[in-house]
Design a protein that fits this description.
Rossmann fold, NADP, 270 residues, 2,4-dienoyl-CoA reductase (NADPH) activity, binds NADP nicotinamide-adenine-dinucleotide phosphate, globular, alpha/beta, SDR family oxidoreductase, NAD(P)-bd_dom_sf, 9 helices, oxidoreductase
C-alpha cells in the first residue's frame, strides 16, 4: 500500500518488539532501514530480518546507548556515511519497570528520564541536520502514561509526557523547514516486553483486553501500520499530533485498567 523505495529510514530502539516491527514494515515497503540499540546481538539479528524483508535495500545496524552523547554522535556519523540524508526517523528507545515512587531510588527515576526523554531529545538533535528538508518525518513512540496517571509509573509518566511535549514544540520549531513530527501512543500491545512488564501473565492481559473498546490487545503491526501512514505523503498536513493507536483504550478503559494493574502490584509489595 505504501512505497518507500529509495527512502532512508532510521529506527532508534528498532531491534525488538514494536519498533522492530516498524523497522521491518518500512523495509517491506521498499525502504533502506538503519536500526540502533545497545545490544549488538539484537542489532545484528534485526539487520538480518531487514535483509530478508527487502534484499535490495541498503540496511545497517549501529550500536549505541541513547544516554551516551558521544556514542550517539558516532552512530549517526556511520548512518550519515551510508545514507547521506534521512527521510524518516522513528525514535522509540525506552525503559520501563514498575516501582513505587516512595521506594524508587533517584537514580532509578533518572535512568528512565535519561533514556526516554533526554535520550529522545539527543536522538532528535543528532538526526536533525540529516533530516532538515521538506517532507521529512519524525515519529516518536510515546505511551499512554504520557497523559494517563498510573501507579508505579511516576518515572515513565513524567518521561513520556515530556516526549509528547517535545513532539508538539518541535512541530512548531521544525515545521518551518517542512519537517513533520508526530507521536504514536501504542495501547497494550501483545507479545512485547513493555506489556509483559506491566501485565505479567495471560489472565491480566485478557483483563486488559476486555477494557479496550475493540475488545482485543493490539498487535505490533497495528503500530507499524500507523507509522507507515504518518510518515507518508498521505499525512503531509499532519504534524504535532499525539495519536493513540489503542482500539479506543484511552477513551476510558485505560485509566481503569492501568489503575487496577498498578494497585494490584502495590499490594504485592512493589
Ligand atoms: N525497580 C526499582 N528500581 C529499579 C528497577 C526495578 N525493577 N530496575 C532498575 N532499577 C533501578 C536500579 O536499582 C538503578 O538504581 P540504583 O543505582 O539507585 O540502584 C537504576 O534503576 C538503573 O538501573 P540499571 O540496571 O543500572 O539500569 P540500566 O541502564 O542497565 O537499564 C532499565 C535500564 C532499568 C530501564 C532496564 O530495565 C532496561 O534496560 N530496559 C529496557 C527494556 C525495557 O524496559 N523494555 C520496555 C520498553 S517500555
Ligand atoms: P522493547 O522490545 O524492550 O523495545 C525497546 C527497544 O529500545 C529495544 O530495541 C532496546 O534494545 C532499545 N533500548 C532500550 N534502552 C535503550 C538505550 N538506553 N539506548 C538505546 N536503545 C535502547 O519494548 P516494547 O514494549 O516493544 O516498547 C517499544 C516502545 O513502545 C517503547 O517506546 C515503549 O515505551 C512503547 N510502548 C510500548 C507499549 C507496549 O504495550 N509494549 C505500550 C505503549 C508504549 P537494547 O536492549 O538492545 O538497547
Amino acid at each position: 500500500m505504501f512505497d518507500y523505495t529509495n527512502q532512508n529510514v532510521v529506527v532508534v530502539g528498532g531491534t525488538s518488539g514494536i519498533n522492530l516491527q516498524v523497522a521491518v514494515s518500512f523495509a517491506n515497503a521498499g525502504a533502506n532501514v538503519a536500526v540502533a540499540s545497545r545490544n549488538i546481538e539484537k542489532v545484528n539479528a534485526a539487520v538480518a530480518l531487514l535483509k530478508q524483508a527487502n534484499p535490495n535495500g541498503n540496511h545497517l545496524g549501529v550500536s549505541f546507548d541513547v544516554r551516551d552523547e558521544h556514542a550517539l554522535a558516532q552512530g549517526f556519523t556511520i548512518i550519515a556515511k551510508s545514507f547521506g540524508h534521512i527521510n524518516v526517523l522513528v525514535s522509540g528507545a525506552a525503559g520501563n519497570f514498575p516501582a513505587s515512587a516512595a521506594k524508587l531510588s533517584n537514580n532509578g527515576f533518572k535512568s528512565v528520564i535519561d533514556i526516554d526523554l533526554i535520550g529522545s531529545f539527543q536522538v532528535l538533535k543528532q538526526a536533525y541536520s540529516l533530516l532538515k528538508r521538506p517532507n521529512a518525518s519524525i515519529i516518536q513512540i510515546s505511551a499512554p502514561q504520557a497523559y494517563i496517571a498510573m501507579p508505579l509509573q511516576a518515572h515513565v509518566c513524567a518521561a513520556k509526557a515530556g516526549v509528547d511535549m517535545l513532539t508538539r514544540t518541535l512541530a512548531i520549531e521544525w515545521g518551518i523547514e517542512g519537517v513533520r513530527i508526530n507521536s504514536i501512543v501504542p495501547g497494550p500491545i501483545a507479545d512485547t516486553e513493555g506489556f509483559n512488564r506491566l501485565a505479567p501473565n495471560d489472565a491480566l492481559q485478557q483483563k486488559v483486553a476486555s477494557s479496550v473498546p475493540l475488545q482485543r490487545n493490539g498487535q505490533k503491526q497495528d503500530i507499524a501500520n500507523a507509522a507507515l501512514f504518518l510518515a507518508s505523503d498521505m499525512a503531509s498536513y499532519i504534524t504535532g499530533v499525539v495519536l493513540p493507536v489503542d482500539g479506543g483504550w484511552s477513551l476510558g478503559g485505560a485509566s481503569i485498567a492501568m489503575t487496577e494493574l498498578g494497585s494490584m502490584a502495590v499490594k504485592q509489595g512493589l
